[in-house]
Specification:
Elements lengths: L3 E2 L37 E2 L12 E7 L6 H7 L4 H11 L13 E7 L4 E9 L2 E8 L2 E8 L3 E10 L4 H7 L4 H10 L15 E11 L2 E15 L2 E9 L5 E4 L19 E4 L2 E5 L6 E4 L2 E4 L5 E3 L4 E9 L3 E7 L4 E8 L1 E2 L8 E2 L4 E4 L10 E8 L2 E3 L17 H19 L5 E2 L1
Antiparallel strand pairs: 1-2, 3-4, 4-5, 5-6, 6-7, 8-9, 8-26, 9-10, 10-11, 11-12, 13-16, 14-15, 16-24, 17-23, 18-19, 18-22, 19-20, 20-24, 21-23, 24-25
């Protein structure tokens, strides 16, 4: 016999992400004077046939935290303590479950009494680990998957910092870093950023069963700084050489970066007369000081060979890099050097060479940076530095056809701040 009950909607056993439906009214639809009535109707439903001692089961998704073990994660997923031991024993069959990757998601089907039915984990973008209950035991399986690649377009406006604006626009940090790196030769993000500056980005996003598992490469970007627009497009030529180029094929990678650190403030500029905070006297300051916390990474501003790495007087821990032609750069007051940085080592533009410190004559943690031409210090903020090689002429037409759809998307994004997917 069936008892009369009111209708109950139970959301259980959803996939990686649920289906979201949107409803709207057609333009010019008249909504006034429409009679509305709220009603309910008792209906007969069969009594539920529960298979787990009177419990329901649900899909739960949790993101892996820093330093979190599988045991801790299972507790957050609501798995009963007596179940966890059996799961941990089975998990030893695969190393991936013993070393969880921070930031990735785990999806589990768990009953309301803490009984684990199944668990899914993506340790990498092309691998899926499934832990499945079989009677009273568990079976683990690792399989290759083919993630779906989408193009995501997002945009935002600068109100304070670049990362604050990209966070507000839901742009991943990795894409924000690529954005800053690409335009670092044209825009000094220490001094040039203005409230109201705008940006648009187009990047790859990898997903599986509706869940984002990896953020890919930044494919195109526009940054409008103080009213001037800068655009960059990723291009890989038939010989495998790749990089970012402007719309007219100019290489966005300059021979020298404007700054050895993307996001720090200048605490002391290039000057012929500055009061030294340690020596308590006026003297020339032939470099740029960047204030930053101890341990902040410092990057090489161009390809180079290390000519000196050690301690030197008031510089403290110092690195000197020899670049092409008459150019060299110096990095002082470091707390430590990056691994493999020693005299004669080759470094690439953007490579981390050391870390901010306060060694030598320093009143606090900062980087003292010098740009030298034939051994003489010059102000890098006022120098016109050479560009890298432009796009080869034989690939101009291929570049234009490849980037045209991306340019069209940037045109659309210029007047819209709504993200959309292909």
């Amino acid at each position: 016999m069936f008892a009369k009950k009111r209708l109950i909607l139970v959301l259980a056993a959803l996939p990686m992400f649920g289906v979201v439906a949107a409803f709207g009214l057609a333009p010019d639809t008249v909504t006034e004077d429409i009679a509305q009535e709220i009603w309910s109707q008792p209906i007969e439903l069969p009594s539920p046939r529960l298979t787990d001692s009177g419990s329901f089961d649900f899909w739960r998704e949790e993101r892996i935290g820093s330093g979190e073990t599988l045991s801790h994660l299972l507790q957050r997923l609501g798995v009963a303590q007596e179940e966890i031991s059996a799961v941990l024993a089975t998990s030893r069959e695969t190393k991936a479950l013993g070393h969880l990757t921070v930031g990735r998601s785990v999806l589990a089907r768990v009953t309301s009494t803490g009984r684990l039915i199944s668990l899914q984990y993506l340790p990498a973008e092309d691998r899926l680990i499934t832990l499945q209950r079989v009677n009273n035991a568990f079976r683990v399986q690792e399989s290759a998957i083919q993630p779906e690649v989408q193009l995501v377009t997002r945009g935002g406006t600068i109100d304070g910092s670049l990362f604050g604006a990209t966070d507000a626009a839901n742009v991943p940090d990795s894409i924000a870093s690529q954005l800053a790196e690409i335009f670092s030769s044209d825009i000094d993000f220490h001094r040039d950023l203005r409230k109201g500056d705008r940006f648009s980005v187009i990047y790859e996003s990898y997903s599986y069963q509706g869940s984002t598992i990896k953020t890919g490469r930044l494919l195109a970007a526009e940054f409008v700084n103080n009213g001037q627009s800068y655009r960059a497009f990723y291009f890989r030529d038939p010989k495998g050489r790749d990089g970012y180029y402007s719309a007219n094929g100019q290489n966005m990678r300059r021979a020298f970066l404007k700054s050895p650190m993307p996001f720090t403030r200048i605490s002391s500029g290039f000057s012929n007369s500055r009061y030294h905070p340690v020596l308590k006297e006026w003297r020339a300051h032939r470099g740029i000081d960047y204030a930053a916390p101890t341990g902040t990474p410092i990057r090489a501003v161009a390809d180079a060979v290390v000519s000196f790495a050690g301690r030197q007087g008031g510089y403290g821990n110092l690195i000197v890099l020899d670049h092409q032609g008459p150019y060299s750069t110096a990095y002082g007051h470091l707390s430590r050097f990056a691994p493999s940085i020693k005299r004669g080592a080759r470094v690439n533009q953007g490579q981390v060479i050391g870390y901010v410190g306060s060694t030598g004559l320093a009143s606090g943690p900062h980087l003292h940076y010098e740009f030298r031409i034939n051994g003489e210090q010059k102000n890098p903020l006022t120098l016109k530095l050479p560009n890298a090689y432009p796009l080869a002429a034989q690939y101009r037409s291929l570049f234009a056809s490849t980037t045209q759809p991306l340019a069209a998307r940037l045109d659309m994004a210029r007047n819209s701040r709504t993200a959309f997917l292909d």
